Amino acid sequence: MTIPWILLTLGCGSFKQTAQDDAERTYEASDSAVDPLVENSDNWLTGLQAVNEEGSSSSIQLRWNPPVDSNLQHYQLRFIDTISNTSREILIEATEQSTLLTGLKSQTEYEIELAACLDEACSTKISSEYNQITAATATEQWQLQGTGHSLDDLERIFTGESLIPQPYKPISGAAEIELYLLSNEHQIWKRGLQSNEDTSLDMAAVVDLEVFSCMQPDCELTDVSAFQVLPTSEDEEQSQLIVLASIASTAPVLYSIEGYSNQSSCQLYNDCQLDILFATTQLQISNFQLYQGDTNVPPFLLLEGSSDCSGESGFFLSSQTENDWEITMDVSGCPRQLIPNGETPSLLKEEEYFKLYFRQNGQLHFLYAQATEELSFASWEPPEVLRSPIFQWPDGGTVSVDDLAQLEAMKVLFSDTKYIFFQLPSSDNQSAGIGFASLLNP
To answer: Are residues 80 and 163 in the same domain?
Structure first.
């Protein structure tokens, strides 16, 4: 006789807004509805719980009381993201009474189905009453690094005006993190960083390296506004440097810097040359994120800009065809807007999905896309389900909306510790510079 699954629902509640609230949430299954197919109550699965004791933004702990049946082979667990309606399935050894679901989306609701299998194929299952509870992964809690509770008190790992940071996680080398910086003199250079146990950062034993320069009056590039560094080989001896710039005040174009090496400087028209990667007359581009592609997902471009056709501003999507790039269009023949009024995209690839951090109306948000073989608009969650992290001052107070809006050029890096780098403004007491925040509840 096949006995139904247990259904454990994690979701559909209102999101908590403090780390303390998230850490205190415990959810137990109801014992009110008895499965009429169960004849021996000693052989039930009981005591199902979902516990987020640490207030984690990416994991949930499950616990249960096992049945006494000696023929139990294993447990079969399936959890469903209720926003995208995508699911994953795992097998758990019969001796276990708990499991930790990891790699979950932050601030997201899940449904979970658990079965105790009496054979390898799980064609016969032991179940008990119909159980249903509500839970969610926690809201991300980021802490600004420094002292006190003002922008002047925050640590500046480098000082300077109009710096655009681009953190990078090298596979090997003396530095755990490489922080690339674009200055207003058309220079890109990097500094090595090491993280400490307390999530602070120290300068690594790496000499600052100017990786690219294009100086006046010989340089034809104008308005270098964004860049990205991408590995081209496993040993990373060679990397691809992409810059968004204009030549002679024309419309911005994405250029690949050919000849750039991770270990040496690159003087334009001397050591390295420009190669056009992407150009369009349909958008005025101001920023971008390039995903190079892998065996599962082909390359794509996330473009920040405005449409000459519709006048809309925000993010637009372009996919690589055999010989060119193709912008996704709407039914009227204009570039189709992915996210309205999005700025400063920071794209991360995780196991099952992409995670996009961005600014909108001065605030930081993030959104997910399923990592499918053909990334399209259908792969992305709708803008209506934007998530917003919470930021804390070093002394634990909550950062106000007005203060958060002053942190410019935010870029996110997921290494062993997760960081956000940003440009801090100058004041009467402090110079402008690059500050950072670390994730408290990964």
So the answer is: no
CA angle, 170 then 171 then 176, to 5°: 50
112 and 176 share one domain: no
The pTM score is 0.86
- Decide: 419 and 413 in contact? Cβ < 8 Å: yes
Q: Can you tell me the distance from the alpha carbon of 134 to that of 87, in angstroms, rounded to the nearest whole number?
A: 17
Phi, psi angles (nearest 5°) of residue 151: -65, -35
Question: Containing domain of residue 229, as a range?
Answer: 141-439
**110 close to 63: Cβ distance less than 8 angstroms:** no
Residue 71 has pLDDT above 70, yes or no: yes
Q: Are residues 387 and 280 in the same domain?
A: yes
pLDDT by residue (tens digit) across 172-188? 666 778 888 998 767 88
Any idea which of 64-73, 132-141, 206-215, 421-430 has the lowest mean pLDDT?
206-215
The model's confidence at residue 217, banded by pLDDT at 50, 70 and 90, is low
DSSP-derived secondary structure for 280-323: -SSEEEEEEEEE---SSS--EEEEEEEETTT--EEEEEEEE-SS
Q: At 85, which CATH number?
A: 2.60.40.10
DSSP label at 379? G
Residue 88 has pLDDT above 80, yes or no: yes
Q: Are residues 271 and 393 in the same domain?
A: yes
The total number of structural domains in the chain stands at 2
Structure tokens given for 315: 């993010």
Of residues 144, 149, 185, 198, the one with CA closest to residue 410: 144
Distance of CA 314 to the CA centre of its chain: 18
Helix (H, G, I), strand (E, B) or coil at 394: coil
Say whether both 277 and 401 belong to one domain.
yes
Selected residue with higher pLDDT from 71 and 248: 71
Are 107 and 180 in the same domain?
Answer: no
DSSP state of 36: T
